[in-house]
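REQUEST FORM: STRUCTURE PREDICTION
Request ID: SP-0412
Submitted by: Lab K.M.
Chain count: 1
Length (residues): 79
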Amino acid sequence: MDIKVYMTPTCPWSQKAKEWFKKKRLPIQEVDIVEMEKEREEMLQKTGQLAVPVIVVDGKFIVGFQEELLEKTLGNHKA
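STATUS: Completed
RESULT:
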């Protein structure tokens, strides 16, 4: 399972998402959109907005830290 999280270092919801994945023992690829312009543009192009976090699970985009939707998307996957 491929999980990418577009975030900013100062966003509390980004940090909550990061901690949630850590608690679930699911590895993520962190993308700091403040530092990574190309990735920020990619996120903007695919979602139409700059809100963070944006979580991508196997190509499916989830805007915001939506715990119920993440649980549903991830199913019973264990790291």
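NOTES: The mean pLDDT is 91.
Reviewed by: T.R.
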